């Protein structure tokens, strides 16, 4: 006799699955490489076995991911090594190759009005020469530490949250606990998934969902990864809150509007003595912005996305000691414009895309203003070159891209970037949002008379779905240094181009 409860659940499960696919399609970023989907859906080995044995096990979710990556870098700064700075030709170690492995396992349970989810992870690095926490310049209350590099955290609790609510019957829901936050294309708020540790928050989020829009109201603190701790502490001196709303009611267009608040006091920078990466200086930054994005397929073969944001508030003077720096008035902005065309009738359905990114820099800190855009909590790897030299701070990026899908299991992307400083009176910032400062005229710093041209980057990425549960990916990037880098390093050993290669294997189980 058929199980009545199972039959009654099927329409709900189908509706939820369809809704998830629609949302995934709407949020898929056009102008970036995306891995190929599995040839057929995969629910996980244990899930498939248990659900076949007992239909009631549909409420449970057991699974995980094991990701192994090898990276080879030449011309990159090795964090913590004296004199090692990006693109330096000689005088310091500039070659680093290492293995990264991230293992995540999750257990979830869902009822009609509530659910729970737990996800521990293990992040291991081998042969990485970078210091886990370089602490340079020295920050009182923290210690310089090498260990296994900044992407090692042997065991930690990545996520552990519960939800209350059912949007099919009530417009409000609650999600509370340790969780990832990801909005839009992750330019300002993302899970930082490329990183071997990733990012999570101890946060509470209320969602208001109706036929016109969906809006999240959230508040919480970022978790501080620290190798050797299972339950990493959060940074209670770095408070992050916001409202992010999305509507699909505009013809052909998805509209996002958001207000984000980041409030870090002077204790935030030394909350933990040995974090995996530096904590923030003092700031009270408020970001208001919006994004327009074409709905898939509704403009024919064309697609586009426009995003802009303005920041106000205050920021501790970055040229002064972090614990005593005076506050400057924040006045910064960014905008992104991208578009593309897909040749749907040609082999491999090629897409040509063009993008322009601009983020403001600071013209003169002596005027009491801070004009450098705060990149907040992004996933920068997806946007400003796969070599991870650049963040959305004091930069102009012109990006061209060709993507190909020769088969359903294979995707390829070839892209090029041209980088210029937005303001030569400000620093050249790294992917983590820190200014490159190596001292006066003998290296990186503020050189208002230098050329703004930073350089160009060329990347080739390819991914192949081996099976419905395994994928392989690889890429190569080359950065051609521009006049700004050449002028900055002429008295510090000279400059050189940089090279990057990686191979990654992912197993879902």
Can you characterise this structure?
The N terminus is likely disordered. The chain has an 18-stranded antiparallel barrel. It has one domain: Porin, CATH 2.40.160. The chain is globular, with a radius of gyration of 23 Å. A hairpin with a 5-residue loop joins strand 8 and strand 9. The two termini are 32 Å apart. With 509 residues, the chain is mostly beta strands.
Q: How would a crystallographer describe the biggest sheet?
A: 18 strands, antiparallel, barrel
Q: Can you tell me the CATH topology?
A: Porin
Rounded radius of gyration (Å): 23 Å
The share of residues in extended strands comes to: 35-45%
Number of helices: 3
In short, what is this structure?
This protein is mainly β. The chain has three helices and 19 strands. It has an 18-stranded antiparallel beta barrel.
Write the layout of secondary structure elements.
Layout: H1 4-27, H2 45-53, E1 60-74, E2 95-110, E3 114-126, E4 153-164, E5 172-179, E6 201-209, E7 214-222, E8 238-247, E9 253-264, E10 283-294, E11 302-316, E12 327-342, E13 351-359, E14 369-370, E15 395-407, E16 410-421, E17 453-465, E18 470-481, H3 483-489, E19 498-508
Parallel strand pairs: 12-14
Antiparallel strand pairs: 1-2, 1-19, 2-3, 3-4, 4-5, 5-6, 6-7, 7-8, 8-9, 9-10, 10-11, 11-12, 12-13, 13-15, 15-16, 16-17, 17-18, 18-19
Keywords:
Porin; 43% strand; globular; mainly beta; disordered N terminus; 509 residues; 18-stranded antiparallel beta barrel
